[in-house]
Amino acid sequence: MISRRELEDAQQYTAERLAEVGIVLTAAEQDAIEVADFGLSELGETGLQLLVYVNTDRYCAKELVLRPGQTCPEHRHPPFDGTPGKEETFRCRSGRVYLYVEGEPTPQPSCVPPPGAYTVSREVELGPGEQHTIPPGTLHWFQAGAEGAVVTEFSSASRDDLDEFTDERVARTTVVA
Amino acid sequence: MISRRELEDAQQYTAERLAEVGIVLTAAEQDAIEVADFGLSELGETGLQLLVYVNTDRYCAKELVLRPGQTCPEHRHPPFDGTPGKEETFRCRSGRVYLYVEGEPTPQPSCVPPPGAYTVSREVELGPGEQHTIPPGTLHWFQAGAEGAVVTEFSSASRDDLDEFTDERVARTTVVA
Prior knowledge:
The structure is a homodimer. Chain A is mostly beta strands. Chain A is 12% helix and 38% strand. Chain A has 2 helices and 9 strands. In chain A, strands 1, 2, 3, 4, 5, 6, 7, 8 and 9 form a 9-stranded antiparallel sheet that branches. In chain A, a hairpin with a 3-residue loop joins strand 2 and strand 3. The longest helix of chain A is centred in the first third of the chain and has 17 residues, at 4-20. The mean pLDDT of chain A is 96. Chains A and B meet through strand 3, strand 5 and strand 8 of A and strand 3, strand 5 and strand 8 of B.
């Protein structure tokens, strides 16, 4: 649960970070900025701000904005509607983001996850202009560096409601009260 | 046909316009900027500069850069591999772009197409932060306004080699000599 104030602060932070990297939003888009606390009520630690540009039944594009050290918790995108599930490409626009994906664990990863269930630790570090594609159905989580991050996500069709989180306390819904 | 000099000038112009809107490219991406004269050897009039971020068998994302008044000629994306063909969303980042699509002709359109075969004239004007989605298999062309334009394209999988142009003189291949 987050407060109305936290929601509005996070939306304003997001709009400012996007403006800094030259991304122009319409007024309707500014109002539609999503803030996710993943049900943990610790938005600054585990959370994500999103702006969805388009999400058809074939492709999707979003901007993801993270505060310094903010983490999107470990999850995977399962198959649906006869597709293999969401395939996604993260492209860092500004700041730095550390992706953790399936594969050989990185010996000394740059990030420590927040308390909870995290099982994959192959690190992929992305700075501005760098990108990485995550295959459908595979586990991943990510954390922003000390300056936060703006990350563009290109993908196949997105169904956030189907995301499967490793930590059973985590949910994609955010309650504002 | 374009000269090596025209190609390099167009690549540099593209990199500069992208940098102006805060888009950071890797060195490999700068070298991979595509310049298309559509076989007409009149690049400033009929042409397009492109950077492909990613093109999987499910989705694609590109930046399109147009010089002032430059036109991408009329074409459509046909069905392939059991899909309805490429569906695409144009989002204007900077400058102004005029899309012409199927539907009721706009009485006094803002642009005049270059000499050639142009049959659709429903105008959709996009400024920074505005976007429009074009259904698969439908005719469209576009022209930049007086300041040129940077346009991000989100889409399903892209197969430029299959594009069907209204003007039979037009081709997607560009010869550099």
